[in-house]
Amino acid sequence: MKIKHELDPIFQKDSKILILGSIPSVKSRELGFYYMHPQNRFWHVLERVYKEPIPNTIEGKKEFLKRKKIALWDVLSSCTINASSDASIKNIKVNNINKLIKETNIKKIYTTGIKAYDIYQKKVFPKTKIEAIYLPSTSPANATYTLERLVEEYKSNLL
User: Fold this and answer.
1) Rg of the chain (C-alpha set)
2) CATH of the domain at 115
3) Residue pair 127/37 in contact by the 8 Å Cβ criterion
4) CA dist., res. 81 & res. 83, Å (int)
5) Neighbouring C-beta atoms of residue 140, cutoff 10 Å
């Protein structure tokens, strides 16, 4: 199925880091915000890394990101994908991440998952010249990583 990314990037002028996924999951597209599948561990990981509860509301999540100077977006602006499977992604177009970087204080870029990392390195890095730091996917499909292991990986990179 061909999909177009319809979520706006979350950022402020003083954002210092950018976390990029590949493209929103079916559930995230349905609910209109990032990492909204109830089994995705992204928000749980950030709660533990920053030792601060994150509200369940979209506005609460945006406030948390703002306080932590975190920008959130995805590498892809459109692609062909089966359900939410990164492995099935084809026919890609990337977001204008360089424009976002120029509007902020972003100095570090992280990707969640190998697909986002690979696409960033091949298609976006030549424009931004900022190396991405790979972080493991928080998707429930990434069963090789426990929540504790994800927290350790994110903590050692984000803090």
Assistant:
1) 14
2) 3.40.470.10
3) no
4) 6
5) 12
Q: In this predicted model, what pLDDT tens digit does every residue of 60-87 receive, in sequence order?
A: 999 999 999 999 999 999 999 988 887 8
Neighbours of 86 (CB within 10 A): 22
Q: Which helix (H) or strand (E) holds 26?
A: helix 26-31
In the block, tokens 């030549």 appear at 126
pLDDT 10s digits, 41-61: 999 999 999 999 999 999 999
Give the Cα-Cα-Cα angle 125, 106, 51 (nearest 5 degrees). Answer: 115
For residue 85, what are the domain limits?
2-158
Amino acid of residue 4: K
Considering its fold, how many domains does the chain have in total? 1
One-letter amino acid identity for 2? K
Beta carbons within 8 Å of 144's beta carbon, 6+ residues apart: none
DSSP 143: T
User: For residue 54, which phi and psi values (nearest 5 degrees)?
Assistant: -110, 125
Buried b (16+ CB within 10 A) or exposed e, 95-132: bebeebbeebebeebbbbbebbbbbbeebbeeebebeb
- Written as one letter, the residue type at 152 is E
